[in-house]
Amino acid sequence: MKDFQGKVAAITGGGSGLGRELALCCAARGMKLVLGDVDEKGMVETQRLVEAAHPGTETTTMRLDVSSLDQVQAFADLCKSSFGGVHLVFNNAGVSVGGPVWENTVADWDWVMGVNLYGVVWGVKVFTPLLIAQGEGHIINTASAAGWLNGPSMAIYNVTKHSVVALSETLALDLRDVGANVGVTCLCPAFFPTGISDSARNRPADKAETITPSDVMLKRAELTKAAVAKGKIQAADIAEMTLRAVENDQFYVFPHRKIKELIKLRAAAAEREQVVFDSLNP
Ligand SMILES: NC(=O)c1ccc[n+]([C@@H]2O[C@H](COP(=O)([O-])OP(=O)(O)OC[C@H]3O[C@@H](n4cnc5c(N)ncnc54)[C@H](O)[C@@H]3O)[C@@H](O)[C@H]2O)c1
């Protein structure tokens, strides 16, 4: 898609970080916004920033838990009832939990798989038929460099993001198979500053049980938090790159160039078949 004026963007995780910046980028292009997030205050703040930067932007919000298929269906219904349809679908909400994989609890798995993987699965399941029927649209799935490279203490996150890459690639092939005029973009950033290190702020009470942090885990969490905070590319720049990718019908987006080099090194390690690839010490 190239012309976004007057069209509709649905953005999950629109109350913070990248989702907020995607909302601002879409508003800058004259789009109407439908924001979904479990963080209602965050969405109010996004709406305020959008109105300040692009007065008159039509925005609606919904308290949305993307891990629920019923709620994602209601989110799509809201797009139709508010604005008559939807053109860009950003499956962007995401959370993270750390720890050695054998210690992660059932609740850790349920929570992160529910948001990062099922949230995208339901977004694809609900919105793709609407876009196909409309004859126009684009689905943007926020994966991660962690969809290609595995660091320690992030097993659940890594599993979900590899799955989002697999889902996105297969979705694009399936759409090509049926000749649908619906694009797909798979966004794969490395660390950049947002609220992701503080994901537990929105963790539901019924999935609260988590591991007792060991010293190693706490050290890893500190390193990850520092890497996120020190990320050189800002969420606003990543959002803009993403919108340009949609305009150019580009499938992969790697905002951090180093990631593509590391992926080649991982492939070389697989070729050698000897030891596990360590993206932190390639
Ligand atoms: N920041 C990074 O370093 C980084 C790197 C690669 C990929 N990503 C991905 O970017 C995406 C956006 O994350 P961010 O970095 O902006 O973090 P963020 O914490 O700033 O924003 C994530 C948003 O998702 C919302 N959310 C959490 N659970 C939800 C649920 N069940 N339903 C709906 N919304 C929910 C949160 O309330 C929050 O507003 C995520 O998919 C994340 O995995 C982030």
From TrEMBL:
<dbReference type="InterPro" id="IPR020904">
    <property type="entry name" value="Sc_DH/Rdtase_CS"/>
</dbReference>
<protein>
    <recommendedName>
        <fullName>NADP-dependent 3-hydroxy acid dehydrogenase YdfG</fullName>
    </recommendedName>
</protein>
<dbReference type="Pfam" id="PF00106">
    <property type="entry name" value="adh_short"/>
</dbReference>
<comment type="similarity">
    <text>Belongs to the short-chain dehydrogenases/reductases (SDR) family.</text>
</comment>
<keyword id="KW-0560">Oxidoreductase</keyword>
<dbReference type="InterPro" id="IPR036291">
    <property type="entry name" value="NAD(P)-bd_dom_sf"/>
</dbReference>
<dbReference type="GO" id="GO:0016616">
    <property type="term" value="F:oxidoreductase activity, acting on the CH-OH group of donors, NAD or NADP as acceptor"/>
</dbReference>
<dbReference type="InterPro" id="IPR002347">
    <property type="entry name" value="SDR_fam"/>
</dbReference>
